[in-house]
Specification:
Layout: E1 8-9, E2 25-28, E3 33-36, E4 56-60, E5 71-74, E6 78-81, H1 95-102, E7 109-112, H2 122-126, H3 131-134, E8 137-140, H4 144-147, H5 151-159, H6 162-173, E9 177-182, E10 196-198, H7 208-223
Parallel strand pairs: 4-7, 4-9, 7-8, 9-10
Antiparallel strand pairs: 1-5, 2-3, 5-6
């Protein structure tokens, strides 16, 4: 299919006005933290998933982790791999590597930390994954009732650095240990940098070095 002007990189916003990362703050209560994405007050909320937390959570990005980063979205075609920047690559081609690394840790839960949470959405994204992997998911970092309440809060969430999105979710769920698999290491919060397994967007989990780092951190978490 021809590449048209309607195509955009997944995660790009059609709205030109976005709020900066300074427009949010983390608030705490006795059990969960809440991220205030606008100047208006948002009540602390509990992510709508059962269970809501786990001893070990792996925050999972998709683009640049389970497949090449050059993913596009078209209103008619949906999500697809760029035939120009990622010729020969397919969606979820490196997913077997994730399944292999998680196999020794059956209790490890997954939280979706990807632009796919917004488009096509959490439920539709999980439909595209194998049932055994899908069963590990307990939620996503994006929650429509809070972050998508209006265009302003959505724009603010999307402009917030990925590391801050994940850290806010970890403070809500309060797992004993957590790891993030992501190719977006920009502006990662210093207090959580050791939780990050950074991927290179064109190789993701196909990189033996990335898999060794993931393996090392999984072993460290379970040993602790």
């Amino acid at each position: 299919m021809d590449h048209t002007s309607s195509d955009m990189k997944l995660g790009q916003s059609a709205r030109p006005e976005v709020m900066t990362g300074t427009d949010f703050e983390t608030r705490s209560d006795e059990s969960f933290s809440s991220v205030n994405m606008t100047s208006s007050h948002l009540e602390p909320y509990i992510p709508a998933s059962t269970p809501r937390s786990a001893d070990l959570i792996v925050y999972l990005d998709l683009d640049g982790v389970l497949h090449h980063e050059a993913v596009l979205w078209h209103p008619n075609r949906g999500i697809y791999m760029s035939p120009y920047e990622a010729a020969g690559h397919t969606l979820f081609e490196w997913l077997p590597f994730l399944e292999e690394e998680l196999a020794p840790y059956p209790s490890a839960a997954l939280v979706l930390s990807s632009s796919w949470c917004v488009k096509p959405g959490y439920a539709k994204t999980l439909e595209r994954l194998p049932e055994q992997l899908r069963a590990r998911f307990i939620g996503g970092t994006y929650h429509k009732r809070v972050h998508g309440a209006d265009p302003g809060t959505l724009a603010s969430f999307q402009s917030t650095p990925r590391g801050m999105q994940i850290l806010a979710d970890a403070r809500r769920r309060k797992p004993r240990h957590w790891i993030a698999l992501d190719d977006d290491a920009e502006d990662w919060p210093s207090q959580a940098i050791d939780n990050l397994v950074a991927c290179e967007g064109t190789s993701g989990l196909s990189s033996p070095e990335v898999r060794r780092e993931l393996r090392r951190k999984l072993m460290r978490c379970t040993a602790a």
